[in-house]
Amino acid sequence: MKTALHQPVEQTLDQCIKCNICTTACPVSAVTDLFPGPKFEAPQAGRFRKPGQPTPDQSVDYCSGCRVCNMICPTGVKIAEINARARASIVQQGKVPLRLRLRNNLVARAELIGKLGQPVYPLANYALNLKPARWIAEIALGIHRQAPFPRLTDQRFRTWFHQHPKPDGARRKIVYFHGCSTQYYEPRVGRAAVRVLEANGFEVLVPQQNCCGLPLLSNGEFGAARKYHTNNVRHLVEYARQGIPIIGTSTSCTLAIKEEAPELLDMHDEDTELVARMTFDFNELMLNLLEEGSLKTDFKPIPFTLGYHIPCQYRAHRLGKPGLELLSLIPGLTLIDSQVSCCGIAGTYGYKKEKYEIAMNVGKPLFDFIEKMGGPVVVCDSETCRWQITHATGVPSIHPVELLSVAYGFAPEGPLVKLFS
After folding, report:
1. pLDDT digits (tens, 9 = 90+) for 358-372
2. Looking at residue 313, what is its pLDDT?
3. Is 329 part of any domain?
C-alpha cells in the first residue's frame, strides 16, 4: 500500500538550471576526465535514457555516489540517485562484463565474506592480505591489490552482545542496527555503542538483521538489494510500531534505511516508511537526548587534539555536524574538522582496479590534512572511510562513540588502548 505520491528521481532532472555548481564541487571529475561531471551524467544525459533502451553513456559508472552534488544543487535535482539508477540499467542490460560483475558482487557482500571468513579468521586474514593472492585477485577479478581490506576479528559483535550482562533498571528500549562492519570487523564500535546507551538508561535490543544493501545498490544490483532491505524492514517494523527508536553507528547503513533504499527501489509502503522515520544516526540520537535534558554529561576529560572527518554519507543525512557537537561536550577534547569533501573510497568504489587511483587522488586533501595534524588517531563516522584513512596515512581511525565510551569511564579498546596507556 502506497502512503503518498512520490516523484520518481528521474523527474527531478527538469529542475536543473545548468548552473554547473555540481560539476565544480564534484571530487571525482576534479581528478579524472573519465567522469565528465554530475550535470552531464544526470540531468543532461538522463533525458536520453529511456526504459528498455540501451544506456548511451557508460561513463556514469565512474560516479562514486558521494552525493556532494545533491547537497550543493540549488534546485534539488537528485543527481546521485539518477546516476545510481543509470548504473543499475547498465547492469540489467548485461553491459557489465561477467568478470567485473562477479567482482562487484563480491566486494559488495561484506556480510557473506564475514560469515565465511570469521570462523577461520586467522587463515582468512592471512589469505586476504597475502600479496600473491592479491595479485591474482587483481588480474582475475579487477580488485586492486592495494585496496584496504579490513581484518576479521576473533569474535562477532552479536556473540559478545548475547554474553554481555544486561543492566538493571533500564528506563526505555532502543534497537541497535550494527551493520556488517561492526558484526565482523569492528565489534569494538558496537561494544562502545551498547555501553554508552546503557549508561544513558537504555535497554539495548539487537534483533535479527542483515546487510543494509547499500553496497549492492552502489553497484547496480538492485534485485539483491531489495531482498536485503525487505528482510530488514520485516525484522525492524514491529519495534518501530511500538515507538522504539532504531539507531546505527554506520552512517551509510542508517542512510540506506532512512532514504537511499526506499527511494532507489521505489519502496514507499507503510512499513518501509515507518522504519525509515524511526531510524536515527547514533550522534543524532545523542543530541536529541541532550536537547530533551536526558543525556548523561558527566564526562571524564580526554586531553587530546584530534583530526575529524565527516564522511560524504553523513553529510547526506542533512543533520549538520552532530559528531562535532557531541564530542565538544567532552572536557579537554579538541577536534579539528578536515573540511574535506570526500576520502575517495565511496564504499566499494576504491576497491576496483580501474578506480583505485581515482579514489586515492580524491582523498589526497584529506590524507594531507591528517599528516599535517600529526595526531595519534583520526575520528571518523564511516567504517570504509576509516579503513581508507588508515590505508593511506598509516594513522589509526576510530568512531566518535569510542571516545564517548572512554569519557563515560569504560576501558578503551582498539587504537585507543595505546593512546591512554
Report:
1. 999 999 999 999 999
2. 83
3. yes
Pair type for strands 305-309 and 172-177: unpaired
**Does residue 191 contact residue 413 with C-beta atoms inside 8 Å?**
yes
Instruction: Judge whether 255 lies within some domain.
Output: no
What is the per-residue pLDDT across 9-32, written as a single tens digit (0 to 9) for each? 878 888 999 999 999 999 999 999
- Contact partners, residue 47, CB within 8 Å, separation at least 6: 13
CA 35 to CA 23: how far, in whole Å?
A: 10
CATH code, 409:
3.40.50
Contacts with 332 (C-beta within 8 Å, 6 or more apart), sequence order: 301, 302, 303, 304
Q: Which three cell numbers stand for residue 189?
A: 564500535
Residue appearing with cell numbers 571529475: 29
Residue-range definition of the domain harbouring residue 379:
297-419
- The CATH number that applies at residue 46 is 1.10.1060.10
Q: How many CB atoms lie within 10 A of CB 103?
A: 23
Q: Domain boundary at 61, 92, 123, which?
A: 92
CB contact at 8 A, 264 and 85 = yes
Number of domains comprising the chain: 2
Secondary structure (3-state) at 204: strand
**pLDDT-based confidence at residue 56 (cuts at 50, 70, 90):** low
Distance CA(310)–CA(314), nearest Å, equals 6
Question: Given 65, 92, 119, which residue is the final one in a domain?
Answer: 92
